[in-house]
Amino acid sequence: MKMACPTALVPTIRVWLGAHPGAGPLVVKLELKGGFSANLGMGPDQLDRLIAAHLGAAVLRPVDLLAKPGGGSYGSVDEAVRAGNWPSRSALAGRVLLYAIPGTVEEGNPFDTLHTDVEYVRHLRDLAAAGRIKDAQLFPAVHGAVAGDARSRCSGADAGIWPWFVVFDDGAATYVNGIDTLWYDRSHYLLVMTDAHQVAPAISATDPTADQARALAEQLARAHASIVSSDWRNLAAVQSLVLSRG
Questions:
Q1: What's the pLDDT at 140?
Q2: CA 199 to CA 219: how far, in whole Å?
Q3: C-beta of residue 60 within 8 angstroms of C-beta of residue 25
Q4: pTM score, two decimals?
Q5: What is the DSSP string of 93-145?
Q6: How far apart are CA 51 and CA 72, in angstroms?
Q7: End-to-end alpha-carbon separation of the chain, Å?
Q8: How far apart are CA 224 and CA 220, in angstroms?
Q9: Residue 20 has pLDDT above 80, yes or no
Q10: Vertex 192, ends 189 and 198: CA angle to 5°?
């Protein structure tokens, strides 16, 4: 699911989960078109409070990854997921994971250097330093595939925020064209491949045959995708496929 307006999105998620209590995990990409605006009441803190108020314990939060099975806590979400500390898929039934990418207005504005992903990841890091990591309700995502560690794309020299990124999102055609996707799999990062239909040879964005869509989903699973996104709304059997990664 991808929606741009959190005030409409969050109640919708609550209703959907109520109607499908055994489904999930539900993964939601949140694109704030113009980014955060804390001075207008639309900052990271306000978004966290909105999500917590409507969804409560249904949300898989960054803090939920930090507890070590034998006691103690990991120092960052990066450390936690590299240790394989994601909950199992069955344990996430009825729950939702939300992640944020930069908005289109931000990405097209050369004067806006504080994109949603950077602003929220710094918010997440600062909450952890203040002992308030439990307040964070979503994961910032690195948007854009590059060779090597893609976190350098949005954080530059500020490597101190890298340990709070564990979700990566970009077009499937980019990931399968020379990017080392095995690295994401070995690190246990969540890798979302979007616009699956653009992978060569391209197929319909909305109405491919079931065989075409299934074959492409299987190809991208072998290419280490965690999630494959498309607009194949008439192919529920393909949209709901669960495949082995890699």
A1: 94
A2: 10
A3: yes
A4: 0.90
A5: TT-EEEEEE--HHHHT-TT--S-HHHHHHHHHHHHHHTT-GGG--SEEEEES-
A6: 27
A7: 23
A8: 7
A9: yes
A10: 145
